[in-house]
């Protein structure tokens, strides 16, 4: 059987950085060539970054994408890399005449094969996802071509990301037309509790297509989204051949024994029923007909999967790091209260950007306990962070001399003074302000607008309170361990008292979170069902939640929508986050009833 050594470029592009992404493509292609690869596969829309959102509606951006692709093909040849075929994602433009109801400019989520200085063939995503975080009917036209190119005697087909996740389309066309290998550029976002759906998906589609499948996935953070890599190669029977690591860049190599192409399958085009009510045009072409001489295969790389908490923590660190780096920040600042939320946020920040770039501000009020200040100072010493103490009692008193505030308004004034101080320090020193609120608080509105909700990025925005405790305990257990995503703290980075003490906002004497909210283990289960699983009132009660608590929590969540709309972005880790995933009207008179 013919052999092919494929290289999957699990890379971290930056949206809009076309020149830098193209330079990375050349660099990684050179590495693949030095390791005798026969084909390199980059990720979905690698040249432009993904997702580009409304940038694709600008003709100038689409023009730049197409020009970059062609210039990169020429550059590869100029640098002696033209003989190595490269599959890469980019944004293209459809040749159809524009009409009402199409995205402006008719963009395509495309992939191309470049070889010997030119673009040999192009294709585009056929299935356009329009659920969860995806809005691709807004941005792209559907592709209707399936290129199959002969490479060293093996027929290789190209499909793009969602084309694996839906029935019919390119995978069915591959099964009809026949190929020895299906390569798939992807930008598939991370979320918790996916289990191992990608491997199962790739195995099923390989068996359906009747050929080996190579799945190259993006890695890195892009605003709210995190891409975890985890690129996969399976054989025609669906057995795992090679797997890349999660949350880091990697050039994954796999030596494959593949079937010789049918010599009767000549170059040309023909239609195939896609099985979804559409027709796909299969286009056959030849890059090289002769198989490579037999060679000794290298052992495949099979990276282990991370356990649940390490996976979540790694996603948060990567999300913070890339938001920080790709937006050009040099330092971060946050308020450190001695509580668990700010402690975990500070630790994630230290892991993401290094302790020397993390600045924390201790802002005690007249209601702050002694242990709040001492726990915060303990964390600073454990991690080596920059810190300062700014007592806020005098500032609050000055406000109250001019405006009489009582009750909740007076409590919130303390939070707003703290937010004002952090934003002032951000303006003065260029720090990125990290907001420390968790998903449980954000869901129920247990936060202060322009106070503890102020900031530029919210690392634990999608982390329920019970998970905050779990992650903190897990991170402490990693003391002394150092990796690409963990700083090698010699001691547990979070004080044990911050983890074990009862949570409190400390905005009035003796305050506890349970004064306003049910216990977090009860609350979080209910929030997961209401927010992430979209259960109505009757469904929640049927699932075993207390009816009185259901009514109370639904009311809190629904009334807080206007607050969430003004909250900073933060990394998505759950099946449904507050942001791209969950978009509800602020002005909304719908209320859940027992029968809804």
The counted number of beta strands is 20
Helix content: 25-40%
Any low-confidence stretches, pLDDT <50, length ≥5? none
Shape: elongated
First and last CA, distance: 60 Å
Q: Rg from C-alpha positions?
A: 26 Å
Q: Reading side by side through the largest sheet, how are the strands ordered?
A: 13-12-9-8-7-6-16-15
How would you describe the oligomerization state of the chains in this entry?
Answer: single chain
Class per helix and strand makeup: alpha/beta
**How does the major sheet shape up?**
8 strands, mixed
In DSSP terms, counting alpha (H) and pi (I) runs of 4 or more, how many helices? 18
Strand content: 15-25%
Mean pLDDT: 91
Layout of helices and strands:
Blueprint: E1 3-10, H1 18-34, E2 39-41, H2 59-78, E3 86-93, E4 107-115, E5 118-124, H3 136-139, E6 145-151, E7 154-158, H4 162-165, H5 170-177, E8 181-186, H6 197-209, E9 212-217, E10 219-222, E11 225-228, E12 232-234, E13 240-243, E14 250-257, E15 268-273, E16 279-286, H7 308-326, E17 332-335, H8 340-353, E18 358-362, H9 370-383, E19 386-389, H10 393-402, H11 407-429, E20 432-433, H12 439-444, H13 465-477, H14 496-500, H15 520-532, H16 537-542, H17 547-559, H18 561-565
Helix pairs in contact: 1-2, 7-8, 7-13, 8-13, 10-11
């Amino acid at each position: 059987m013919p052999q092919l050594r494929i290289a999957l470029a699990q890379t971290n592009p930056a949206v809009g950085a076309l020149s830098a992404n193209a330079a990375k493509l050349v660099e990684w292609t050179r590495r693949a060539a030095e390791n005798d690869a026969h084909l390199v596969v980059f990720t979905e829309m690698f040249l432009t970054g993904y997702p580009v959102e409304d940038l694709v509606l600008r003709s100038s951006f689409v023009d730049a994408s197409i020009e970059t692709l062609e210039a990169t093909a020429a550059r590869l040849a100029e640098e002696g890399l033209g003989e190595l075929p490269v599959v890469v994602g980019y944004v293209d433009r459809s040749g159809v005449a524009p009409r009402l109801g199409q995205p402006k400019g008719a963009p395509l989520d495309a992939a191309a094969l470049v070889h010997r200085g030119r673009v040999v063939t192009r294709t585009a995503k056929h299935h356009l996802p329009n659920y969860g975080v995806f809005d691709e009917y807004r941005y792209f036209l559907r592709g209707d071509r399936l290129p199959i190119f002969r490479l060293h005697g093996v027929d290789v087909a190209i499909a793009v990301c969602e084309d694996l996740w839906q029935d019919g389309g390119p995978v069915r066309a591959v099964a009809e037309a026949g190929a020895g290998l299906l390569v798939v550029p992807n930008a598939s976002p991370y979320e918790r509790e996916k289990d191992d759906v990608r491997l199962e998906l790739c195995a099923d589609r390989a068996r359906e297509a009747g050929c080996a499948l190579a799945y190259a996935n993006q890695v890195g953070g892009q605003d709210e989204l995190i891409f975890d890599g985890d690129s996969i190669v399976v054989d025609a029977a669906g057995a795992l051949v090679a797997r890349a690591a999660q949350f880091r860049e990697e050039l994954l190599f796999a030596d494959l024994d593949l079937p010789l192409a049918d010599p009767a399958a000549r170059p040309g085009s023909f239609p195939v029923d896609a099985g979804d009510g559409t027709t796909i045009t299969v286009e056959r072409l030849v890059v090289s007909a002769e198989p490579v001489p037999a060679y000794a295969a290298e052992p495949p790389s099979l990276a282990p999967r991370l356990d649940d908490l390490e996976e979540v923590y790694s996603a948060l660190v990567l999300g913070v790091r890339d938001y920080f780096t790709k937006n050009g920040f040099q330092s971060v600042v946050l308020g450190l209260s001695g509580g668990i939320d700010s402690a975990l946020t500070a630790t994630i920040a230290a892991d993401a950007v290094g302790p020397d770039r993390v600045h924390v501000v201790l802002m005690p009020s007249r209601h702050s306990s002694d242990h709040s200040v001492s726990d915060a100072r303990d964390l600073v010493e454990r991690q080596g962070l920059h810190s300062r103490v700014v007592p806020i009692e005098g500032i609050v008193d000055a406000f109250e001399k001019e405006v009489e505030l009582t009750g909740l308004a007076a409590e919130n004034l303390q939070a707003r003074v703290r937010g004002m101080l952090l934003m002032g320090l951000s303006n003065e020193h260029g720090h990125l302000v990290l907001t420390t609120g968790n998903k449980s608080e954000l869901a129920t509105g247990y936060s202060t607008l322009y106070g503890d909700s102020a900031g530029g990025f919210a690392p634990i925005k999608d982390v329920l309170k019970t998970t905050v405790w779990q992650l903190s305990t897990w991170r402490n257990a990693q003391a002394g361990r150092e990796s690409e995503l963990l700083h090698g703290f010699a001691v547990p980075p979070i004080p044990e008292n911050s983890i074990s003490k009862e949570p409190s906002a400390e905005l009035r004497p003796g305050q506890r979170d349970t004064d306003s909210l049910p216990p977090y283990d009860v609350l979080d289960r209910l929030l997961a069902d209401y927010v992430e699983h979209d259960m109505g009132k009757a469904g929640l009660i049927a699932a075993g939640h207390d009816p009185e608590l259901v009514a109370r929590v639904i009311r809190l969540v629904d009334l807080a929508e206007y607050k969430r709309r003004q909250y900073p972005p933060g990394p998505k880790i759950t099946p449904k986050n507050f942001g791209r995933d969950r978009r509800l009207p602020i002005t909304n008179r719908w209320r859940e009833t027992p029968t809804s």
